Amino acid sequence: MTEPSPLDKAEAAVREASADTAAVQVALAAVELAKIATTQQQRPACEHHAPTPDFNARKWWTIGGLAVVGGCVACVLALAFAAALIALAIGGTCATGCLLVLRSMWRDLRK
Q1: How many structural domains does the chain have?
Q2: What is the DSSP string of 71-105?
Q3: pLDDT for 17
Q4: What pTM does this model have?
């Protein structure tokens, strides 16, 4: 069987003492304070901080590299699209000029 702790012995002694009620109340309060102090000392020092995961630099380098490459690809595609639209506009202008010249020549030949 386990031997009672000093706090348990003190609590039992206080409960047996019945001569002075004020002294009993003070002794019980002291025992309760001692119990609270021992339970607070047994708790871990810091409870609110969760352990931080390990920092993975390779993951962030990969994300950054993919963002840069994706940005470059988007930029090249946008420039290619713009060049295609400019070529289409130039071709349309040339075709319109040719048609106007041919229409004028056709009118001259029909007279």
Answers
A1: 2
A2: HHHHHHHHHHHHHHHHHHHHHHHHHHHHHHHHHHH
A3: 67
A4: 0.41
